[in-house]
Amino acid sequence: MNSKTEKYLRYILNPLELFGTERTREILAVNPTIIPVREEATRVNISAFIYDKNAIEEKNNLSVDEVLLLRSSEKIIWINVDGLRKVDVEKIGEGFGIHPLLVEDVLSINQRPKMDEIDDILFSLMNMMYFNPKTKSIEQEQISLVLGNNFVITFQEDAGKDVFQALRGRLNLPTSKTRTKKVDYLYYTLIDAVVDHYFLVMEQLGDAIEDMEETIVRSATNKRALATINLLRKELIVLKRNIFPVRDLIANIIKSENDLLTDEYTRYYKDVHDHSLQAIDLVDNYRDMIMGMQDLYINNVNLKLNEVMKVMAIVTCLLAPATVIGGIFGMNFNVIPLTSHQWGFWIAVGAMLLIPLWMLSFFRKKKWF
Question: What pTM did the predictor assign?
Fold first, then answer.
């Protein structure tokens, strides 16, 4: 079954997708007064990096009990939990001294990106985003980052998606800057990786917007164009909801006086803050482009309608002399000029042809068409 067949079959099975109303409910269905229930992950993968500037050790497929044993290490520890189960998260939280409120935030869904400080823990909650080229929609995954005295724990919802692979590769290099820095530099690197990935998603969304713009320019009467523009505008809402709060999150980290954060790395967080501002500007630009495309579509449709109306008006004007002449000679009077003339019929027909030709020449001279 090819992609086009699958697309139309999806619309038949779920007609609401044709109008994008189902996507609207997904984007706007956020009610903070209702406590959502998180589904337990079917697959959990826990990995860890234990390193200093001299050596690094990577461990995969760890159990929760094995993770808790790492707490005694004096090296820097990065624990990544892919797939969330309530029992596992609570046990890890208790073992590493993470406040229950922060554990509750880790297990929450549809949270707004934020930063928090409780006891000796610095907590950040963000959303990683991925672009689905088939549906031209943005998928998001909540990630929680916990910074402690010598450890960073990242909690991810989906074990099949990740934006930290490049960081893992750098950690295995003996000359890696991350290996020689303190634990808060690792925390910065993780946040920076999430923010930088936003630009990749926006680039893919930008390509979809450009394709849509070309479609509108080539075919002003494409009936699906307006619906597609509306769907792209909804994806911008997802971008705005996830990127705009990150600016405040980074600003709060910069202003924080937590002992876990050293002044040495403040400039790095300022760089991430600049990236978040650039991402916000790009979202605003895309929004302006989509609004412009909607206006362009409507203007093209109106222009097409005006062209049709102009042709119809010209045809009506050209037929008007024949209608008038025919109406005059069809009146019920006893004496009408040329009715008894041997050339009367041909004179009338000639007038019906010559007058529209003169009118046509006059219209062209005036550049009315």
Answer: 0.77
